[in-house]
Amino acid sequence: MMIHTNNYILNIKELWDDVPEEYLSHKERYENAIKKAFIVLKVLRQLHTGNIQITDHRTPTNVYSIQDGIFRNVNPLLIHIGLFWSTIAAQASTEQQAEWLQPDSSMIGTYVQTELGHGSFIRGIETTATYDSTTDEFILHTPRLSAYKWWPGGLGNTANACLVMAQLYINGTCHGLHIFLAQIRDFDTHKPLPGIKVGEIGPKMGFNTADNGFLGFDNHRIPRTNMLMKNVQVLRDGTYVKPKHDKLTYGSMLLTRVTLISDLAYQLSKAATIAVRYSAVRRQSPIKSNEPERQILDFVSQQHKLFITIASSHVYRVVGLWMWNSHKRVTADIHEGNMGQLPELHALACCLKAISSRDASALVEQCRLACGGHGYMMASNLPQIYAYTTAAVTYEGEYTVLLLQTARYLVKFWRLAAEHKPLPQNFAYFEDYIKKNFEQWRNSPEGIIEGFKAIVAGKTKAAYDTLQCNLRNGREFEEAWNMASVQLTNASEAYARSLLCEVFWKETVQLSTKVSKSLAIVLEQLAELYLMYWALEKHGDLLLYSTISRNDIEALQSRYEELLALIRPNAVGLVDAFDIRDEVLCSTLGAYDGRVYERMMEEASKSPLNEDVVNESFHKYIRPVTMKNKL
Ligand SMILES: CCCCCCCC/C=C\CCCCCCCCC/C=C/C(=O)SCCNC(=O)CCNC(=O)[C@H](O)C(C)(C)COP(=O)(O)OP(=O)(O)OC[C@H]1O[C@@H](n2cnc3c(N)ncnc32)[C@H](O)[C@@H]1OP(=O)(O)O
Ligand SMILES: Cc1cc2nc3c(=O)[nH]c(=O)nc-3n(C[C@H](O)[C@H](O)[C@H](O)COP(=O)(O)OP(=O)(O)OC[C@H]3O[C@@H](n4cnc5c(N)ncnc54)[C@H](O)[C@@H]3O)c2cc1C
């Protein structure tokens, strides 16, 4: 059957709620979401097997983005689709993949890594997988409470299988973390298998349809062939065959960090669409006292809050794609046995995941604030987008922890520069900084990019010098590192910002040659706005580390304000161009037709508190108090 995914999914009645999900209990929310998740899964399976085919051109992202509207929260199968399958595809041997990656598989899986006691420091994970050569099995075991798995999405009620990260033991030797496929529930009855203690962890700030769960193993046995064996093997006699790189097991985290950048771009585009459209509808106070009230979008301070969100969505879309292509290239190299580019990819993914999630949550919150009181309503959908986005600052590698990973990479190159050793081309600016080869400041995108590189160099130098000073004072390296960690994270943050500015500007200039002149102008305005915004935000750093002057900063401020005015007439068009359907946006404030107040009233009428003219609590609790003396 040929289908148009949008229409097909939008017309499946059971996927769309009559009662807004905020009025459901924790249990009802899950049950409602799981009903929908399996309808969506069926569609995805039909697409995969070719039983239905797609006629629209933007399919994978379309299905993904329509889901946002269907769940208004999170698809409980997000980890099954996004992490379970992709980890098997990347880390299982060809034979394992042939067995496990069947489109009609009974397995509903999740990715089980974090424990009650350890999330960031994964070498500290306590779950063990001990090889028993007499039976050719691994014994999965949770030795104590802190070793209970805690957090995996879909684990609480949905999954019947999982990929477990555990410490591998063979003949008493620990070989570190490895991934194992374990069935945890009966495929038919869905009851936990013997030796499995599993459940759901309770309500959270967001992700409340994702049934995040806990899991403990009591000497649970799985076949030896259930260890993911593409990069590393345990043979029948217990021989351990090492991987070519000891962090290949962390590959799923790397991939998800890369994918998340695009997902965050999409969340930003939703928030921007809601806030910009609302700001075009909402009128509040005149600018000149003798004039009618103005659209709040005409206030320059409002433009300052919103246009950076539009621009940032484009930045993360462009950089997300750039990272996706790098990931593809590096993965192909790894297949050929060449690990050379992995450290760079890891360093980039860490800082970009950290900064994209932090930026996205700050900007979504800014959009909410820009919608005044109405932005605080759940029906605006901004609170849900915020709760979803801010979780990404923590999961898949906590913000600070990831920045410190990138700092290791920066410090290595600074050490080379300090010792006057050869540097790769992309770090040549470290040498320039040491030799004080400072460029004359230019108030242009290219000048700002150079300025940001000077900040990276200056901050890396400062962190490195502190590190060296701590070492000279007799500290051990790890302690000296901890003492310098504020400066180290600052250097990583600056590095991410310089990458974002450089990649976005270069890609935009290139793209501009391929589109109409009028579109090119707007795209370049957005890119320039992004660079100016951050140059002004970081003007203190520029004053410290580059040759910028006070006059230059004043000129940047004027150009920034000019850009706000230039973008203003296109603001609504720019968010319309994100092309997000009302059904996906789920916002009273952001719908295409601009019927904001009507929709707000329609949504209010769905409140169960409006079902009775007089709520029964009046008779039970209020009247006895207020009428006491009059009875
Ligand atoms: C219209 C537009 C639509 C857009 C549509 C977009 C479509 C998007 C589709 C899907 C979106 C998907 C969204 C997914 C949502 C996900 C939902 C939430 C799921 C959450 C899951 C989780 O959270 S799983 C758990 C994650 N946990 C972590 O991330 C733990 C973090 N900790 C670590 O990673 C490690 O502990 C740490 C790296 C911090 C340290 O490791 P350790 O072993 O201790 O390292 P160490 O010995 O110190 O050595 C460091 C050494 O190793 C190198 N290294 C570390 N990691 C890697 C790696 N991954 N790869 C390569 N190398 C690595 C590191 O560089 C160091 O090297 P040296 O400096 O020593 O040379
Ligand atoms: C919504 C959501 C979904 C999740 N889904 C999954 C899932 O599907 N599967 C899964 O396995 N896990 C999942 N997780 C768990 C997630 O990966 C971890 O919570 C995350 O990696 C952070 O680890 P943590 O909780 O141990 O934080 P901690 O590491 O305890 O962080 C607490 C604080 O300590 C600081 N800190 C920790 N270590 C250092 C250090 N070395 N240096 C400096 N500061 C440090 C951090 O910066 C932070 O400020 C999920 C989490 C959330 C919130």
Automatic annotation (TrEMBL):
Protein name: Acyl-coenzyme A oxidase
UniProt pathway annotation: Lipid metabolism; peroxisomal fatty acid beta-oxidation
Keyword Lipid metabolism: yes
Superkingdom to which the source organism belongs: Eukaryota
Pfam families in UniProt: ACOX (PF01756), ACOX_C_alpha1 (PF22924), Acyl-CoA_ox_N (PF14749)
Domain Acyl-coenzyme A oxidase N-terminal: 7-103
Cofactor: FAD
Family classification: Belongs to the acyl-CoA oxidase family.
Organism: Bicyclus anynana
Compartments, record wording: Peroxisome
Keywords: FAD, Fatty acid metabolism, Flavoprotein, Lipid metabolism, Oxidoreductase, Peroxisome
Transmembrane regions listed in the UniProt entry: none
Domain Acyl-CoA oxidase C-alpha1: 250-411
InterPro entries found in the cross-reference section: ACOX_C_alpha1 (IPR055060), Acyl-CoA_ox_N (IPR029320), Acyl-CoA_Oxase/DH_mid-dom_sf (IPR046373), Acyl-CoA_oxidase (IPR012258), Acyl-CoA_oxidase_C (IPR002655), AcylCo_DH-like_C (IPR036250), AcylCoA_DH/ox_N_sf (IPR037069), AcylCoA_DH/oxidase_NM_dom_sf (IPR009100)
Domain Acyl-CoA oxidase C-terminal: 445-625
